Amino acid sequence: MSKNIAIIGGGNLGSAIAEGLINSGFAKAENIFITKRNIETLSQLKEKGAHILNNNKEAVANADYVILAIKPFQIKDIISEIRPSLKARKHVLISVVTGIWIKDLIEMTGEDFAIVRAMPNTAIAIQESMTCICSHNASEEQAGFVSNLFNQLGKSVIIDEKLMDAATVLGACGTAFAMRYIRANIQGGVEIGFNAKVAALIAAQTVKGAAELLLTKHTHPEEEIDKVTTPKGCTIAGLNEMEHQGLSSSIIRGITTSYKKIVQDM
Ligand SMILES: NC(=O)C1=CN([C@@H]2O[C@H](COP(=O)(O)OP(=O)(O)OC[C@H]3O[C@@H](n4cnc5c(N)ncnc54)[C@H](O)[C@@H]3O)[C@@H](O)[C@H]2O)C=CC1
Ligand SMILES: O=C(O)[C@@H]1CCC=N1
User: Fold this and answer.
1) Would you place residue 1 in the very low, low, confident or very high pLDDT band (cuts 50, 70, 90)?
2) What HAMAP family is this protein classified in (predicted)?
3) Is the CB of 137 within 6 Å of ligand 2?
4) Is residue 164 one of the residues assigned to a domain?
C-alpha cells in the first residue's frame, strides 16, 4: 500500500521535495498533500495531480508521513494547530526546520511520536541534495522509508543529532560556499578572455566533474590533484599562489565561523 505524504509549507524546500518525489516516481502525485497559506503558487503541482491545500489539519489527517518545511519561528504554532489531528501510531514527523531539535519537537508533540530531523540543501529541487538524517522512536520500516525518500532526492546519510549543526554548515550552507567558489572562477575566467556565459558554463561543469570524480572513484582530492599538476606547470603555480593567499585557510575559517554562529544563536 502506498504511503501518503503531507508537506506542511509549500515554499522553496517543500515544493522542491514534492516535485522531486513525483519526478523520481517515489510517490504518486495523488499521494502528496502539500499546504501553503496562499496556494496559487502551487498550481504546477496541482496540474501534476498533487493535493494542494491551505488546511494543515486536513493534509495531516490524510497522511502517514508529515514533512514540516516551514520557517523555525512558525513551527510551534503550526504543531499546536495540527496536534489534534496527529496520531502517535500512524504519523511519522519529518522536520527539515533549521535549529529545531528533537527534544524541542517532543516538547511540542509529546513523547509518543516517531520523529525524524533531516537537513537537505537547495539542490533537492533537481534531486541532487545531500541530506543528513537522524531519528527518534522510528521503527526500522519508518526509518528505512525516510532514507529511501531522501535517496530519491539526492544522497543521504544517517548522523548523530549532535552533528546536525555541523551538517547544516557543511551540507546546506555549503551550497552557497560552492557558488561563491564558482563565481570567483567566472570572474577570473572573464579576466583571461571568456565572456561571462561561457565562463559560467566552464566553471560549473568543471566543478561538477571534479565532484563526480570523487563520488564515483572514491579517491582523495589530493590524488586527483596529482593527476592535473604537471611538474613546473601552470596548475601547481596557480594552486600554490591560491594557498599563499589563504584559499584552504579561508574556507576552513568560514566553515567554523558559520558553525559558531549556529551554535551561539540556537
Ligand atoms: N533554504 C535552505 O537552503 C534550507 C532551508 N532549510 C529549512 O527549511 C525550512 C523551509 O525553508 P524554505 O522552503 O527555504 O522557506 P520558505 O519561506 O520558502 O517556505 C516556507 C513556506 O511555508 C509557508 N507557510 C507559512 N505559514 C504557513 C502555515 N501556517 N501553513 C502552511 N504553510 C505555511 C510559507 O508560505 C512558505 O511558502 C526552514 O525552516 C529552513 O530553515 C533547511 C535546509 C536548507
Ligand atoms: O543560512 C541559514 O541560516 C540557513 C541554514 C541552512 C541554510 N540556510
Assistant:
1) low
2) P5C_reductase
3) no
4) no
Domain holding 207: CATH number?
A: 1.10.3730.10
Position 2 scores a pLDDT of: 86
Considering the entire predicted model, what is its pTM? Answer: 0.94
DSSP string, 199-261: HHHHHHHHHHHHHHHHHHH---HHHHHHHH--TTSHHHHHHHHHHHTTHHHHHHHHHHHHHHH
Q: pLDDT by residue (tens digit) across 171-210?
A: 999 999 999 999 999 999 999 999 999 999 999 999 999 9
**70 annotated binding-site participant:** yes
205 and 249 together in one domain: yes
78 close to 108: Cβ distance less than 8 angstroms:
no
Which three three-digit cell numbers place residue 55?
488546511
State which amino acid sits at residue 116: V
DSSP designation for 162 = G
- 123 and 236 fall within a common domain: no
Ligand number nearest CA of 124 is: 1
Q: Is the CB of 56 under 6 A from ligand 1?
A: yes
User: pLDDT tens-digit profile of 138-184?
Assistant: 999 999 999 999 999 999 999 999 999 999 999 999 999 999 999 99
> What integer best gives the mean pLDDT of the chain?
96
**72 among the known binding-site residues?**
yes
Other beta carbons less than 10 A from residue 11's beta carbon:
14
| Residue 199 shares a structural domain with residue 73 | no
